[in-house]
Please model this.
Amino acid sequence: MKTIRVVAAVIQRKHNGSKQIFATQRGYGEFEGGWEFPGGKIEAGETPQKALIREIKEELDADIQEAVMMLEKHMAQKG
Model:
């Protein structure tokens, strides 16, 4: 079974006394129009934190200085 390592960011901000969660809408592929958290595959030799910083820059053109690992989940993928 092939292992694919990925990261995703859950970005939250407080605004006018309420919490808001940031998500992006896919513009292509099988899940076009669906919502997802920004992120992607971890490249060879890359830490999850560095991958997340890179993915945020690529997808959102935003610079972050720190990424904190909150959860690690292992899932089996067929094929």
About this structure: DSSP finds one helix and six strands in the chain. Helices lie at 48-60.
